[in-house]
Amino acid sequence: xxxxxxxxxxxxxxxxxxxxxxxxxxxxxxxxxxxxxxxxxxxxxxxxxxxxxxxxxxxxxxxxxxxxxxxxxxxxxxxxxxxxxxxxxxxxxxxxxxxxxxxxxxxxxxxxxxxxxxxxxxxxxxxxxxxxxxxxxxxxxxxxxxxxxxxxxxxxxxxxxxxxxxxxxxxxxxxxxxxxxxxxxxxxxxxxxxxxxxxxxxxxxxxxxxxxxxxxxxxxxxxxxxxxxxxxxxxxxxxxxxxxxxxxxxxxxxxxxxxxxxxxxxxxxxxxxxxxxxxxxxxxxxxxxxxxx
Length: 293
Ligand code: KIV
Hints:
- It is a single chain.
- The protein is of the alpha/beta class.
- It contains 11 helices and 8 strands.
- The protein has helices at 12-20, 32-40, 52-55, 68-81, 100-114, 127-136, 165-181, 193-202, 223-226, 244-260, 275-284; strands spanning 24-28, 45-48, 86-90, 118-120, 141-146, 185-189, 207-210, 218-221.
- Helix 8 links the parallel strand 6 (185-189) and strand 7.
- Helix 2 packs across helix 4 (68-81) and helix 7 runs parallel beside helix 8 (193-202).
- The protein is elongated and about 85 Å long.
- The protein binds 3-methyl-2-oxobutanoic acid (KIV).
- 3-methyl-2-oxobutanoic acid binds at residues 28, 47, 49-51, 90, 144, 187, 189, 210, 220, 222.
C-alpha cells in the first residue's frame, strides 16, 4: 500500500519534472480558499510560508514574530483543503535554531498535527544538521538560501545575495550541501539569475526560484503579492497578476454606501411570510400593557 494519499502529487515527481524540463509551480497559501484556488489552477506545491507574519498577521517588514502554534493552525487549514498539491509547512524563526531535537519536534508538529507533506527551513551552515535530523525522522525537507528573511538583519536587510564571486561560490556550496543533507528541493531567493542557473545545473534536486531568474526548475510567489492584495512597495521580483486590493476596497465602500443609503438589502435579499400568516401574526399580537415607570 502506498503511503501517499490518493490523488496527491508524489514527491519524487518533482525531480522527474526537473528531468523532463517541466517547470514546477509553487505558491504560498494560508487558508482553505487559497489552497482550493491554487489546487484548481494546477499548482504543484503550496507553501504555507512564514510570510504569513506579514501578509496575514499584520507584522510589518519581518517574518520573525510568527509562532509555531500560528503556523500549525494555518498549515492545518491549507493541508485540509489541498488534495493534489504537495503542502510544505514553513518552519518559523525559533522553531529549529536551538537544536536538532527541537527542529525534529517542531517538524513533527507540522507533519502530524497540520498534516503537511514536508517542511521548509532557511539557511545552510547550522541548518544542515537540522535537515539531516528531520529527514532522518522521515519528514521531507525543502531548503531555502540566498535572501533568507528570518536572518534579514544579519544580511543587512532585504537585499539581493550572491552578487560577488565569493558570495556566489558560497551559495553554490550551500545548495550542494543542502542537497547532500537530504533536501528534496531548494528555494533560491533574490540571487542573480546566472548564479541560480549554475546551482540549478549542478543540483539533482529541483530549485525553486523567487527573484532568481527563469533558469530555476520552478518558481514561487507569495499569494498576496501576485494577486495584488499586498499594498505599498513590492520587491522587483514580484509580478502582479491581479489588483484584488482595489476590487476589495471598491466592494466594501459600495456596501457601506448602500447600507447607509438604505439601498441594501433589496427585496431580493429579504424573506417574506405568507400573507395569511402575517395577518394572523398581526391580529394575535397582544396589546402591550402600559408599564408604569
Ligand atoms: O515564507 C515564504 O513565503 C517564503 C517564500 C517567499 C519562499 O519563504
